[in-house]
DNA sequence: TCATCTATTTATAAATG
DNA sequence: TCATTTATAAATAGATG
């Protein structure tokens, strides 16, 4: 697609790689936009430049699409809607083990609510890998809870739960280029 | 790019639209794969077909990329690496408010550890939106902490922290190199 | 550095099996 | 309905200012 055919290996020269990245990212986003337009579908692309900077494209926006994707229970592809009742049934089926895990997750959240701030003095930086992994496990439990709940709510609420920071709790719509994230308004074309 | 030039409007015929979607989705994923290969970058694409079915592509996987995107603090784009020290400095700059929030988050995790499972009897389904939002906020704080720690670790560990599920809460290695959400492997090529 | 140019390669719309 | 083919539009690698 250029003067010469190129090998499909990482471009070794940093400068060339950056140029290639910029050109192809532009092309990719354009293609994505065409796909969204021609087929009237939702699409989101997130890409980090070689320098580590995030670029994104989304129709109608990155977060609605990501939210829809993440919220999707793995077991049901009902497409449209699906009552929470079905979900609950599935969850109950998972058995007591999950129930206990959920109880712990809830206890965690509640305990945090009345939290005594000074109970834990060690900094997270001092924690070992094992502890972090365990923290993460509970975190995942929490998130499962949130996701399970989320299917009940309409899209805007779901967005609130999934978006990292909730200032934009509203429903900022409009297909967007560039940063899906709040500060970036339209497009960053340079890295 | 075909026998004829086509208008950039929604293809009205459902059948043609589906064909166009399949072809262009394939092309888009191929381009994304090339971009990832040539430039050694992380990228994720999520697209819902006209029928509402999800398709995804991700390098090294959808969730690691989405996680990185959602977790990104808006204020620092340090790019490469950055010792945890730099991160800590930035966090300290945020002031006492954040310090307190973090302390609460840590307390939460710790409380969960010694958790009394029966403290909370209400089901999550019964919780109100506000409580869920608050739970989510703490969750985000926790995750920020984990991410701050994560920069110290090598990629595989980072992947472990960010990937949504690890059945084996222990230290399941060999991060899933491709899958989107847990059950999905890499890409679904048919709708 | 950076945008623009163009020779080529690549993607794909329509045709075809 | 699909997969394959083919004529053409579109993307882009390298050149150039």
From TrEMBL, chains A, B:
Q: Where is the MADS-box domain?
A: 1-61
| Keyword annotations from UniProtKB, A to Z | DNA-binding, Nucleus, Transcription, Transcription regulation
Task: Cite the InterPro entries for this sequence.
Answer: TF_MADSbox, TF_MADSbox_sf
Basic residues bias spans: 180-191
- Region named Disordered: 163-191
Q: Any one cellular component term from GO for this entry?
A: nucleus
GO MF, one term, reads:
DNA-binding transcription factor activity, RNA polymerase II-specific
Write the protein's name: MADS-box domain-containing protein
The listed locations are: Nucleus
Could you tell me the superkingdom of the organism this chain comes from? Eukaryota
Transcription regulation is among the record's keywords: yes
């Amino acid at each position: 697609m250029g003067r010469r055919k190129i090998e499909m290996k990482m471009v070794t020269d940093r400068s060339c790689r950056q140029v290639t990245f910029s050109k192809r990212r532009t092309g990719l986003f354009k293609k994505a936009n065409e796909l969204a337009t021609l087929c009237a579908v939702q699409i989101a692309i997130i890409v980090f430049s070689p320098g580590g900077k995030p670029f994104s494209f989304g129709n109608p926006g990155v977060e609605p699409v990501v939210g829809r994707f993440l919220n999707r229970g793995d077991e049901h592809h009902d497409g449209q809607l699906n009552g929470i009742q079905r979900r609950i049934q599935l969850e109950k089926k998972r058995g007591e083990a999950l129930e206990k895990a959920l109880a712990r997750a809830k206890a965690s959240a509640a305990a945090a609510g009345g939290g005594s701030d000074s109970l834990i003095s060690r900094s997270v930086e001092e924690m070992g890998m094992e502890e972090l992994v365990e923290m993460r496990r509970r975190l995942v439990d929490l998130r499962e809870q949130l996701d399970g709940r989320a299917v009940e709510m309409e899209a805007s609420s779901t967005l609130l739960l999934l978006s990292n920071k909730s200032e934009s709790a509203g429903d900022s719509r409009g297909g967007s280029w560039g940063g899906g994230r709040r500060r970036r308004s339209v497009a960053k074309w340079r890295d």
